[in-house]
Write a structure and sequence with these properties.
The complex is a heterodimer of chains A (281) and B (300). By secondary structure, chain A is mainly α. Chain A has 13 helices and no strands. Chain A has two domains: 55 residues, no CATH class; 215 residues, MetI-like (MetI-like fold). The radius of gyration of chain A is 23 Å and the shape is globular. Chain B has a single domain, classed as MetI-like (MetI-like fold, Orthogonal Bundle), CATH 1.10.3720.10. Chain B is built from 14 helices and no strands. The chains are: A mainly alpha (281), B mainly alpha (300). At the A-B interface, α1, α4, α5, α6 and α7 of A face α2, α4, α5, α6 and α7 of B.
């Protein structure tokens, strides 16, 4: 392992190079951030200013007034949809993944395969029939329609991730709990879930992020602007005021904030979720 | 009753744990897939949506759709978009994975920060690049003009070929972290003993790469490419927000064209037909992927 560690001059050079790569790749994010603080006039300057000449918070403050697109209302809608979706995914995925990791039952292999395949489904294939289904149940414009649809992405992902977590817990731990008077069910609740808790967090994060980033379901099933999630709201705004970049970049920054917060505090969970989910299937 | 009890006595009780999730997925994924399939053989539009009995028209939708020049263009675009995105995401991702394989002071935090493009909602990414590619205020035109590479601003998103380029460019940006992180974790799985013995045997860097790294990384590369194919082939939000298939239907992918048929033109059956074509292609690719990962698990 030690030969991978770089020291001395090479360490400094590689560190500087990595920062250059970072600046180049993350420039678009920096760019919308500074643009959101510029006056509309300054955005049109050529050559552009790399930093706002005067910090301008108008693009954010203007959103507090109720217009035809209220950013904070949409933000709250998205929060509600994503959080609900997260809970649905966790509640359904925890027992299901435990069963897949610990029990051998009829049809187990087929079930795992089915979950794997649903993860790879295009949104398009369920969008039209789901729209017709929700329409027949008078659920169009009801946030529940977006929640139910968004959870179909989070559930299979969570099940496959958590299956690995439960699978990696040594069986002896469970057996020890039987001696202490647990049965299989209480041992699952009291022993296994607490141990697999990091996995539950990974699933929660990803289910939340999938729903937070969703556009297709939110904009198709929820057509009232006031009830729409923030992604769909922004898309609408782009259609109406396509060149109001000071506002648009401010919306973008606000939408990224929860993602950034999750990233800062949960980075190790995210990377473990991404790698174990994709490589091991 | 006794039989049922006996069935659930031992391991089959697992079915009860999995049942809620399974029922959920059957109602909200299984049923729509079947219903989409049926819909593609019917004639359902906004006019016939409320009729109690829908008319079956056989393969008529498929015949019409395949004769449609926009669909042909969409298939071509989807393939072009997928293949070019995959190639460049993979190359950049692989180079970065090799770079961060070395442990230097900043390697971990910087590699972590590079994950951000992948986490941002695609709608926002699309907005970001739409802004940067815009003709009059876009920084890309301003930079190219500043460097005297172009004399007049390019209408990136308003000209068919350059719009397609802009879409692929943006999608590469989104996909680099995904490729990087999976290849990184694949690299760390290769035991350092092998590298040591190779350097004792006098292998140079190129030989080590060709004879050790690439062959041992093959399973990871396979799954990265196939998964990348699946995820890229079904991209929807990016194109929908950046160009919405325009200018004049020149940048539609199968996913966005299906959406347009269903929700702009209200030709639900035709939309379902295009979605079904997309589904069938991805289904077979998914089976290939599963065959690979499963055969590897069998070897363990």
């Amino acid at each position: 392992m030690n030969d991978r560690t770089v020291r001395g001059k090479k360490n400094i050079i590689m560190s500087i190079m990595s920062v250059i790569v970072l600046i180049v790749l993350l420039f678009p994010i920096y760019w919308i951030l500074v643009t959101s603080f510029k006056m509309e006039k300054e955005i049109f300057l050529n050559p552009p200013t790399l930093f706002p000449t005067k910090l301008n918070f108008k693009s954010y403050i203007a959103q507090l007034n109720v217009g035809d697109f209220n950013m904070f209302r949409s933000f709250a809608n998205s929060m509600f949809i994503s959080t609900s979706c997260m809970f649905i995914s966790i509640i359904l995925a925890v027992p299901a993944s435990y069963a897949l990791a610990r029990y051998r039952f009829v049809g187990k292999k087929v079930t795992v395969l089915a979950f794997l395949i649903t993860q790879m489904l295009p949104v398009s294939v369920i969008l039209t029939p789901m729209f017709i289904m929700f329409r027949n149940f008078h659920m169009i414009n009801n946030p529940l329609s977006a929640i139910l649809a968004d959870a179909t992405i989070g559930i299979p992902f969570s099940i496959l991730i958590l299956k690995n977590y439960f699978g990696s817990i040594p069986k002896e731990l469970e057996e020890a709990s039987y001696i202490d008077g647990c049965n299989r069910f209480t041992s699952f609740i009291k022993i296994l879930i607490p141990i697999a808790f990091p996995g539950v967090i990974v699933c929660g994060i990803f289910s939340f992020l999938y729903a937070w980033g969703d556009l297709a379901y939110g904009m198709t099933f929820i057509q009232d602007q006031v009830n729409r999630p923030i992604t769909a709201g922004i898309f609408n705004f782009m259609g109406q005021y396509g060149t109001k970049w000071s506002y648009l970049t401010a919306f973008a920054v606000v939408t990224i904030i929860p993602v950034a917060i999750i990233f800062i505090f949960m980075q190790k969970y995210i990377i473990s979720g991404l790698t174990s989910g994709a490589v091991k299937g | 009753m006794k039989r049922i009890k006996r069935f659930f006595r031992y391991d089959n009780v697992g079915i009860l744990y999995i049942l809620p999730a399974l029922i959920y997925m059957m109602v909200f994924v299984g049923y729509p897939i079947i219903s989409n399939f049926i819909l593609s053989f019917q004639d359902v539009t906004i006019k016939t949506l409320n009729l109690p009995v829908k008319q079956f028209i056989g393969f008529e939708n498929y015949i019409k759709v395949f004769q449609d020049p926009i669909l042909q263009k969409s298939i071509f675009n989807t393939l072009l978009f997928t293949v070019l995105s995959l190639i460049f995401q993979f190359i950049f991702g692989f180079l970065l994975a090799l770079f961060f394989y070395k442990k230097f002071s900043f390697s971990k935090p910087v590699r972590g920060l590079l994950m951000i493009p992948w986490m941002i909602p695609v709608t926002i990414t699309a907005l970001m690049f739409k802004f940067m590619f815009s003709s009059n205020v876009g920084i890309i035109n301003q930079a190219l003009q500043g460097l005297h590479l172009i004399s007049a601003p390019i209408d990136w998103l308003i000209t068919p070929n350059s719009a397609m380029f802009a879409l692929i460019f943006t999608n590469i940006w989104i996909g680099i972290p995904f490729n990087m992180i999976l290849l990184s974790s694949g690299l760390t799985l290769i035991s350092s003993d092998i590298y040591e013995s190779a350097s004792i045997d006098g292998a140079n860097k190129f030989q080590t790469m060709m004879k050790i790294t690439l062959p041992l990384l093959k399973p990871t590369i396979q799954s990265v490419l196939i998964l990348g194919f699946i995820y890229t082939f079904k991209v929807f939000d990016l194109v929908y927000v950046m160009t919405n298939g325009g200018p004049v239907n020149s940048t539609h992918l199968l996913s966005t064209y299906s959406y347009k048929l269903s929700f702009t033109l209200f030709e639900y059956s035709k939309g379902a037909t295009v979605a079904n074509i997309l589904f069938v292609i991805l289904f077979f690719v998914s089976l290939i992927y599963l065959k690979y990962t499963y055969s590897e698990e069998g070897e363990k």
